[in-house]
Each structure stands twice: as structure tokens, then as C-alpha cells.
Amino acid sequence: MTTSRTRFTAPQRLLHWLMAICILSMLFIGVGMVSTVTTKYLTLVQIHKPLGIAILLLAIVRLALRFIYGAPALPPDLPEPVKLAAWSSMVLFYLLMIAMPLIGWAMLSAASYPVVLFGGVHLPPIAPVSPALHTLLWNAHKYLAFAFFATILMHIAAILTHKLIRNDGIFETMAPTFGKSETK
Amino acid sequence: MVESPASRKSLPLGRLVLIAAVVAAGAIGFAYTAGWLSPHRLTPKKLVAGLAPPGGPAPGHRRNHAKGICFTGTFEANGDGSALSKARVFERGRYPVVGRFNLATADPNAKDAMVRVRGLGIRITTPGGQEWRSAMIDAPVFPVSTPKDFYELLTASGSKDPNAMKNFIGAHPGFLAFAGWAKSAPWTSSYAEERYNSLDSFLFVDEAGAKHAIRWSLMPSALPVPISPDDLAKRGPDYLEQEITQRVAGSAQRWDLVITVANPGDPTADPNKAWPADRRTVNVGTLIVEQIEPERDGPCRDINFDPAVLPEGITTSDDPFPAARSAAYSRSYNSRTAEEAAYPRTETGAKQ
After folding, report:
1. Is B351 among the domain residues?
2. CB contact under 8 A, B30 and A28
3. Domain-embedded: residue B114
4. Which residues of chain A make contact with B202, given a CB cutoff of 8 A?
5. ipTM of this predicted complex?
């Protein structure tokens, strides 16, 4: 699923950086909201739900773009274990981006909470009301969130290594561009 | 960036340190946000732990208001609330209700006569899936003004220091308004004879978008008959549940839902402060309690009566409690649902 392009397409790059902001915000909102009893709690919860659904939708679009446009090939001199790590983290990111919102949505359903996006816009429940299921989903949501953040930190460490130590062009495949450098 | 092959061979220490610093900054920011670096932050975990008796919480049960019994019924809106709020629940009509009568104690086996404060949790569902949840109590004011003060009250009341409560009251004289009620208000021998108050203020949003600061109360149709706690104790430890079951089996019980509208300047942020008695009130409908069911297999068991679950047309006000309660109730719900095995359902009732 690689392409002869040296960079991801502009829509893919846009989605990457947009989702990076959304997902990092989401993870900080998540750990922040469950550790406060101030009025910020309600504000954060109100952002958490629609933002999660937005990430789910963006992830589906992004996955489709990946199938359509593929990804630039990794440098041929990259050691196989590193290639495997890159592939694994990519798969893990897609799984988490799609699973986390669904788990959150199902978790609220299992606890019989209304899933309010904004105003009077509700989502239907996607799981039966069940304390056992709620507990399972709640734990999954929590521990996968930590795993998600850890994976992001590793991703950042890896890409900075590619850029600052190896300077092998991988960072440039996803780097944001501002207009003129597009005509390469 | 151009680098010679030689410089790629030698370890670029500075750059490795930079990478480590970026990752560490991310991790520290995350830990700070999660409260792991702030042991003094009042977290839901701390607040809920503060409610636990010395022996720890009762697994599987609500962390407060642990003793209770479910009911189902109807909210019959008369249409008069629509002038204040565009919420569907105020349009003339009948809407299904699931609720719970309860005692404000962390002990699900507490004796009725040992618990001063009684409560009522309610969920009203309107077509389209909107919900209004509320948890009210029979006290006319809340014991304290802020969630932080509430935590201090829990700490003081659980303290071994004989002066802890005296010191707390000295620092929070507002507590005396609640204590006065607790000491002198008559007890009743029925959940049906209690008035239940939101205490917290909320905002009703009308069709024009105007916001009205309000509180609400459920006013019983049943006439309160005073009873001393001693006489209540003689009727047995679970008399209230037996009484309400028999009473509702005999006839449905009713409460008027009365909205009190604040005047400008009324203390909307402080549930410890009553509003003057002359404030405008609007009777918006009737709660009809039609059936009682034990909690163990009842329809209220798996519901969190989270006061921040509000329909379009009702929002929180500057009162800090609904947020704190919502955060703490969620914590309590997550804990008790994970301990379901400690409070097993009976086999016939193992639905849902």
C-alpha cells in the first residue's frame, strides 16, 4: 500500500495534524475531567463527547484516504525491526482512533446515560444497560487511553529521531507545508 | 538540514537530550493534568472516599444515599412551566418516571430512625430521548456553600479530634442553618410525607433564549404527620420502605413540582442560603408515584441520578455543586457497578 509519492497527500497531512490536535486535547481532557470536582468538570465532559465522535468520523475518512492514496515508502536502509515498529504503531493508532470513541459511546450506553453531543442532539445507545459491560468498557477506555498517550509519546520520540538524528526524510512525508513548497 | 556522514556516526547528545526533553514534557503535562502531581487537589476520588464510614464503603452500593427503594410513575406536566423553559418536559403531557426514595447514609443497612436526611432521585424521560435527572433532599438548605467546604465537613465529622466539628462550624457558620433544621424540624414516618428540594439552582432557558435562575421542590399531597425518632425506631429499622410500598400499593402518591424563580441578586451560587419566602413560584405539574420495587432488582438500581443530566431548556447555573456532584456520582457509579457481585440480583430479576 505504498505509493511513488515522496509525501502524504495534502488531505492526509491536513487530517494528521488536525487529528493530532484533537486526540491530544481529548486525552488531556479525559484525564483532567476525571480528576476535578470544579465546574470545569462539566465543561470538559461536554467537549469530550462531541470531540470523540468527531475523531471517530475523521478517523474513518482518514482510513479511506489511506486505502485510496497509500503512504510513501519508508527509506530502504531502515532496519526491518524499525519498519515493523512503524507499521505496528500505524495499525495501533488506527485501531485506537476508531475503538476509543466507540468504547466511550458504548460505555455511556451501558450505564444508561444519554449520549448528548450538543443541545438536543443525542446519539442512540449502542450497548445494553449492564453494570458488568460498563465496568469492562470503562476499564478498557481508561487503560487504552494511557496506552494511546504512551504510543503518541513513542511516536513523537521516533519521528524526532528520524528528523534530528537520521534526517532520513520520514518527517518530511507528513510535515505541514505552507503553500509554495507544494510544487516540488 | 545538511549533515556530514561523520556527524551522523558520533552520538549527537544534544539532540538526544532534546528528544528526551520533549517526551518528558509531554508526560509531565499529562501527569499534572491527571492530578498525579497535585496531592491537594480535591478530586472525585477524594470526595467519594470522604463519604465512606470508618469501615469503608459498602461494596456494590451507592457511596452516599446508599439505602433506598425504587419507584416508577409519571410526571404530568400542566404546561405552565413552558413560560420559563422550552424543555419538552414542561409541555402539557405525561412523561414516564423512574425514581428512588433514599436515606442520606453510606450504610445500606442503616436504621431509618438514625438517618436525618431523606432524598428522592428522579429521571423523567421525554419523547426524543431527552432526560431530566435530579436528586433532591428534604432539608431546606444544604449544609455548606461549596464543594470544598463539603469535603471539610466530611473530614471534620469523621475526625477523631473532639473539637473538629466545633472548629468546622466556627469557620463555616452557614452550617448552623442546616443544623437548626436537623435538630428541630419534625420527622415523619413516610417518604410520601416529605418535601424534596433541589437546593441547587439551575437556569431555565425559555423559547426566546432568556435565562431564569430557579430552584425547585416536590411538595407532597400527603399531610405530614410528625413522629419522634424514638417512635419511628420502634416501628422497625426498615419501616419507611415497608410503609411506602403499602401506601403506594393502596393508591398512587402525588407531589406538585413547584419552581421558585430567583430575583436579581438572590444567592444562586450558594445552596446553603435560602431565598426569601416571597419569591414567585410556579406549579408546573405533578409527580405521580405509581409502583414501588425493591432496589436489588429494581429499575432505579443501574441509574445514576446525576443532577447534570439535563434536557435542552435547563442548564447549570453559577452554583458549583451540580458539577461536583456529577463528578462524584460518576465515581460512585463506576465503583459500585464494578462491585456488582457484592450486591447480587435475585435470579428471577436478573434482567437488564
Report:
1. no
2. yes
3. yes
4. none
5. 0.93
